[in-house]
Specification:
This protein is an alpha/beta fold and 404 residues long. 33% of the residues lie in helices and 26% in strands. The strands form 4 sheets. Strands 3-6-2-1-9-11-12-10 form an 8-stranded mixed beta sheet, with helices on both faces. The structure holds adenosine-5'-diphosphate, aspartic acid and magnesium ion. Adenosine-5'-diphosphate binds at residues 9-12, 41, 156, 178-180, 183-184, 186-189, 208, 213-215, 265. Belongs to the aspartokinase family.
Amino acid sequence: MRIIVQKFGGTSVASPEVRQLVVKKIQKAKEQDLQPVVVVSAMGRKGDSYATDTLIGLVRSANKHTAARELDQVMCCGEMISAAVMTATLQERGIEAVMLTGGQAGIITDANFNHARILKIDSAPILRLLKNGKTPVVCGFQGVTADGELTTLGRGGSDTTASALGGALNAEMIEIYTDVAGIMTADPRLVSNAKILDCISYGEVCQLAHQGAKVIHPRAVEIAMQKNIPLVVKSTFCDEPGTLITNVSKGDSGGTSVTDRIATGVTYLANIAQIKVSTHHTDASYKVFKTMAASNISVDLINVHPGQIMFTVAEELADKAAETLRALGYEVETLYDCAKVSVVGGGMREVPGVMASFVEALSLNDIQILQTVDSHTSISVLVKKSEMQKSVTALHEKFSLAAI
Ligand code: ADP
Ligand code: ASP
Ligand code: MG
């Protein structure tokens, strides 16, 4: 059996007209003798009636501190509505589709509500449907615990559902359909001349996703990478080939190796706060980080200097972080409204001058660098949020990404 997983994001299932485009993509896969397993997200984006953000808003308007368990029950409804509508649309067009919730599709998770991890997948229900010539339409973003509790997989988690099903079913390919024609050198909402990458490595796209590129969930990339299943990100709205994510570099067939590019993309994470802690004792640094861990606050962009520790946290956790540290007697300063901007490139390691180009691009644009951090395949800076777009554009230009 040749299985293909086709995942359609919120904008791809938002209206009757676009759902007809989805039908075409499914029909095309069938014409190629593939058996599609369809995964759908909730319909539309923030503001649309059945979108995840709308459902969260609805329940939070009753109680700002809605419990994680109840929030999951509500969030699951978005994908259920979408899958039911998509299934009905396919049936109306003569395709024998069957809707499945995450649980009905055999997706078992832990009980970490809002951020559940998939523990196992029983592929029998889907395989049974496929053997009978049916097309399963699975609700993305959700699973069920062994005790029958509904869970969700973290925002953007329908991509994770698609990859996890692809892995469990030994799919030939996982297609992620969205509103852009592939993974781009930057978010096109910020950089008008961003280019579509025809090929990218799992490692690079994972970094881009972790550093904020919302186009695909990093967990989805990790799962596909572990199983070595090709992932393609493409648009529902056109027939462009999209971006192929794989381990095979173009260099193997003579072109430029994708993993040799110094810079592949620029990305950003907004809504970050910088915390500066004054320290007087040498043992303070591990105590500060232990305190943050004990409070379940994850820290990033860490710099430890004699007398001062700097790190960043998600802005919504900044006050909790500062209060916790002050209660222990530390002097704390918080800088709100920051953003992390990163350049990712599989080939930047050991190339001299990359950091110099990075800093030059920002300095020439009068952008103040608040902090930096680098790894083998990325360089990141903290800047003021008001300078985020300028920074992304300047770096995109400096690393000639429009000409990639
Ligand atoms: P879906 O609902 O289909 O999952 P998302 O909104 O989660 O769609 O992801 C698609 C969006 O990701 C695009 O509209 C685009 O604005 C944004 N995006 C951010 N970074 C990138 C990038 N590097 N390449 C392409 N799109 C990006
Ligand atoms: N509907 C969910 C969200 O908005 C999952 C997804 O779209 O992938 O986060
Ligand atoms: Mg998404």
